[in-house]
Specification:
The protein has about 475 residues and is of the alpha/beta class. The protein folds into two domains: about 5-250 and about 460-480, Rossmann fold (3-Layer(aba) Sandwich), CATH 3.40.50; about 260-455, Glycogen Phosphorylase B (Rossmann fold), CATH 3.40.50.2000. Helices cover about 40% and strands about 20% of the residues. It is built from 16 helices and 18 strands. The protein has helices at about 30-45, 85-105, 115-130, 155-160, 180-185, 190-195, 210-220, 260-270, 290-300, 325-345, 360-370, 385-395, 425-435, 440-455, 460-470, 480, and strands at about 5-10, 15-20, 25, 45-50, 65-70, 75-80, 140-145, 170-175, 200-205, 225, 230-235, 240-245, 275-280, 310-315, 350-355, 375, 400-405, 415-420. A ten-stranded mixed sheet has the order 5-6-4-1-7-8-9-12-11-10, sandwiched between helices. It has a six-stranded parallel sheet with strand order 15-14-13-16-17-18, with helices on both faces. Helix 3 (about 115-130) packs across helix 4 (about 155-160). The longest helix has 21 residues, at about 85-105. It is globular. The relative contact order is 0.11.
Length: about 475
């Protein structure tokens, strides 16, 4: 980093101050983004700008909306941006999550584009551009913008610092998939979004496939020069590098449960089955949750000897409940779970144990260890860190990962059982295969995946982006090239 100052801009903040009665609670949200970037800010200092989402966020901040974090040992500044309820509904729930999210995920939910949502999206992106302090305009500032909430922000920042003799380097990382040009063309403001993103010096995606889609999209809709050898787009005499940076997890040691502790965890949730499959997801229509339940149903039909012996423990954190498509998914999922449990369950046995509430990381890692197998069945995904978390938490001699081929993680974790989540028959058969894997084969697969996760962790992801901004070049990892 030398003398450079790192500035992170994201919708999600790394620390949330929430009022609980008379007390104020500090929450650190479970987020791969926070996991990857916060250690660098802790070490080198800097500024994180985010939407203020906690009820006590401004009670604990100064008049500029700033607070020093982490609370136990402050090393960097968190600056919070206030949004009105109307702005949040339009920018976040509306354009970002009813428009861009389904557009990019190809999950058969029709994207909705309203002019009012677009206007709020523009206004909030503009607000964040002016949330940067004036001293951020120098060449020593490195600005890392995170995700589809801020597609317009790079261009707004470029305009803001246009008069400066030396401007900061700007990077944008797109955490979700990038669709093909035909799909992206559905958005009425597709050119404005692309133009906004190309205010960046570097744009990152999880996989090379998404980089290819982005270049093809720019080629289709913009008057710009596409360099397929350098993987760059030049527009308005400004070149933007397009790079694959596969995100990883924090490879910190995990406390291993012994068999007695695993039995106690199963007893706490009434899990009687000897074989446990786990799923850990937000309740989102892109995650293939209904298909997962239908696969368990088909497994018990096709392989009746697993009845009473296998349960799926599905952790589902409620998400974006303001959006009708998410409420519909919740209803559909509850109905599917009830159908399977009624059909195959008993007083002492439930084929599916559904836990639709938020769980902290300290508990999630124990559920991973309890799982004899883990189901990651996304219909479309950027990376999906659940796959990597499960492997990292699990003992090498046990556990098996069933992984959708439509996740970025499937490009790296090739030792998993890779499946098409739209094929219920294939998914059911893969569960049976995973259960019957010989110990030696299971160990070989898990050790190989653990090695990849260790070498391509969250800190490598952040470091590669920073290096690209500092030098204007990157040396892609073998995994990034392969993806």
């Amino acid at each position: 980093m030398q003398d450079h100052k790192l500035i992170v801009i994201s919708n999600r903040e790394p620390y949330i101050h929430q009022r609980r009665g008379e007390q104020i609670e500090v929450i650190r949200p479970a987020s791969g983004l926070v996991t990857a970037l916060e250690p660098i800010l802790r070490q080198f200092g800097g500024l994180w700008i985010a939407h203020a989402s906690g009820s006590a966020d401004f009670e604990t901040a100064n008049e500029r909306g700033e607070i020093q974090v982490p609370p136990s040992h402050p090393t960097y500044t968190l600056r919070r941006v206030a949004l009105s309820r109307e702005e949040e509904l339009g920018y976040y729930y509306g354009f970002a999550n009813e428009g861009l999210w389904p557009l990019c995920h190809l999950a058969h939910t029709r994207p909705i584009f309203r002019l009012s949502d677009w206007e709020h999206y523009q206004a909030v992106n503009q607000r964040f551009a002016w949330a940067l302090p004036p001293e951020s305009s120098g060449k020593n500032s490195l600005i890392l913008i995170q995700d589809y909430h801020f597609a317009l922000l790079p261009r707004f920042l470029k305009r803001r610092f246009n008069g400066a003799t030396q401007r900061p380097r700007i990077g944008l990382f797109w955490h979700i998939p990038w669709p093909n040009p035909e799909t992206f063309g559905i958005c009425p403001w597709n050119q404005e979004l692309l133009h906004g993103m190309l205010g960046s010096d570097v744009i990152g995606f999880h996989t090379q496939y998404h980089c290819n889609n982005f270049l093809e999209t720019c080629n289709r809709y913009l008057e710009a020069r596409i360099d397929w050898e350098k993987f760059s787009v030049t527009m308005d005499q400004h070149e933007t590098l397009i790079r694959a940076f596969p995100i990883g997890i924090d490879p910190s040691p995990v406390r291993t449960l012994n068999q007695q502790e695993i039995h106690q965890l199963k007893a706490r949730y009434g899990i009687q089955a000897e074989i446990v499959a786990v799923g850990v997801d937000r309740l989102d229509y892109t995650k293939g949750l209904v298909e997962r339940v239908e696969a368990i149903e088909r497994l018990l039909e096709k392989y009746p000897h697993y009845r009473g012996r296998l349960s799926l423990v599905q952790m589902g954190s409620p998400s974006r409940t303001h959006i009708p498509a998410y409420r519909a998914l919740s209803d559909q999922l509850h109905q599917a779970v009830e159908r399977v449990n009624t059909r195959f369950g008993s007083e002492s046995y439930q084929p599916i144990v559904f836990l639709p509430e938020h769980h902290e990381w300290g508990e999630i890692q124990y559920f991973y260890q309890m799982g004899d197998l883990c189901l990651v069945t996304s219909l479309h995904d950027g990376m999906n860190l659940v796959a990597k978390e499960y492997v990292w938490c699990q003992a090498a001699e046990r556990g098996a990962l069933i992984l959708s081929k439509f996740t970025g993680a499937s490009r790296e974790l090739t030792e998993a059982l890779i499946i098409n989540p739209y094929s219920i028959e294939e998914l059911a058969d893969s569960i049976a295969t995973a259960i019957e894997l010989p110990v030696a084969e299971r160990t070989r697969r898990m050790l190989a995946m653990k090695e990849k996760i260790q070498s391509q962790n969250a800190f490598h992801w952040a470091t590669h982006q920073i290096r690209a901004l500092l030098t204007g070049t990157t040396t892609p990892s073998t995994l990034a090239q392969a993806s």
